[in-house]
Amino acid sequence: MRRAVVAAFLVSTLVPIPAQAASRGVVTGHVENAVTHKPQGGVDIALSGVAKDGDEIHRRVRTGSDGSYRFGGLPTGDWIYAIDGTFDGGLFPGRPFTIPSDTTRPPVIDTTLRVWPTTTEPDAILVTRDDLFVVSTEKGIGVIESLTILNHSAKAYIGRGATDSSTAPTFGIAIPPSATGVRVENASIDIPRLVRTDFGVGLTVAIPPDPDGTSITFSYALEGTAGRYTMSRTALYPTAEMSLFAERGLDVESNRLTRDGSLELKGKDYAKYSVADGADAGDEVQIVVTARGAPPWWSFALAAAGVLLLVALIALAMRWRGRRNKDAVPGDDEPQPDRREPLIAAIARLDLEHDQGLVDEAEWTQRRAALKTQLERAGR
Question: Tens of pLDDT along 177-191?
């Protein structure tokens, strides 16, 4: 009997046990001062994670003199994480990431965060372009607005009334009070949230210095009375160029915008209106849009995706032109297409279809997750 037990034990030790996937992971990283290019200590680092089932994780640490930070024992798999840094009164967010679960050892994710000294001086900010695209919907009009913000200082701009709160507005965006469904569609920096303000909405992140400017594209809907929609706003910052593109069937009245040609996009005509000499901070730009007839409600979803793609292509062309002017490469005549733009447009179209009830919650969640995965891969 004893021999049988011993034999069974020896056999069991020879049978390989399947490796278990790691259920916990580690996130390490360091913070770099973008001005000195040295490790930055004293940065408050916040890690936030959310699971597919809605569970959340929130942790905080502060970087030491070597600028490093570490978070251990984090769930892997169906979790999305983000790391934000607060430094000199400014919020500097990092891009979302996941921790893989298909590893036999606890996976380690290495991250890097850049921070800048900050400024509250509004003269550091110039809006170089403000483009608005307006289309009809069944209930009103839809607007997609694209801003290019130039911070020409050497510091990150954190707003005139800067505080240490991560929900305090740093940069204001003027939109009509009746705007609903305000959502960021694309941006060159991470924007964790928009907050409502007296003048519209505000960003909560610092605007870093960037010679190419910081771009933000967002959308919202407007309901009006008797086919009239007020889009008037006060310029919050000096604005070099402001244009409005209205699809056929929409008339525009304004004290500053004048008709400036037209644009054809995927078989649709848009009338272009521009502010000839730009706008100074505090200038009132009165805009009233009147609809002569509304197309089917789903036209906004289709038009929005096309308009968003056009905005991205215009921005890409401008960035390419600027780079060629600064350091042209002989024989390099054609800009490379950005693989992200069609995916961004597809996400915007899907979101709009979901908001209008054309796509149910389950399908929207599944398709959006797939598109976001493709978008992350395209950005690598």
Answer: 889 999 998 899 988
